[in-house]
Amino acid sequence: MDDSNSGAAAPQAEQAAPRFYWNGIKDAKGAKLQRAYYSDMGPRPSVSGKYPAHTISIYARDYERFSALVRSHFVVENNSDGMTDYFENDSIRVVPSHPLYPQVKAAMDARSARVERRNGGGR
C-alpha cells in the first residue's frame, strides 16, 4: 500500500503515544480527555480508493481540536471555513496498517459494547 495514504504523520521517536478510551483520547494517564467518537468504514474500501476496508474514523466532539501529541501521530483533517461560517470537527482516518490501529480498534469496540449494553443488548 502507498504510504501517502497511511493516515500517519511521522511521530517523534521519543514521544509517547496517546491513550484511546471508549469516549475519547488522552495524552497520558490522568490527562484531560479529548472527547471523540469512532466509526468503522466497514468491509469495503472508500469509494475514492483513498482508504482501505476497515479504516476507522475518529471525530473530535464539541469543536475542540486534537492535541499536539495526537497530531504528531496522525494526519488530522479539519475543513472549517470561517469566511462562510462553516465549521467542522477535527477528524482522523486510521488505516489497518497504522501502528496504533489495534488500540484505536479496541477503544471503538469498547464504545460499541457500551452502547449495546445501554440499549439492552446484554439481556
Largest sheet, spatial ordering of strands: 1-2-3-4-6-5
N- to C-terminal distance: 42 Å
Residue share in helix? 10-25%
**Mean pLDDT over the residues:** 87
> Poorly predicted ranges (pLDDT <50, ≥5 residues)?
1-7, 10-14
- Per DSSP E runs of 2 or more residues, the count of β-strands stands at 6
Largest sheet: 6 strands, antiparallel
Q: What's the gyration radius in Å?
A: 15 Å
Helix and strand string, N-terminal first?
A: EEEEHEEH
How does the helix and strand content classify structurally? alpha+beta
Please indicate the percent range of residues in DSSP E strands (runs of 2 or more): 15-25%
Q: Give the overall silhouette.
A: globular
Note the total helix count: 2
The gist of it:
The chain is an alpha+beta fold and 123 residues long. It contains 2 helices and 6 strands.
Describe the structure.
The protein is α+β, with helices and mostly antiparallel strands and 123 residues long. The chain has two helices and six strands, in the order ββββαββα. A hairpin with a 7-residue loop joins strand 2 and strand 3. The radius of gyration is 15 Å and the shape is globular. The N terminus is likely disordered.
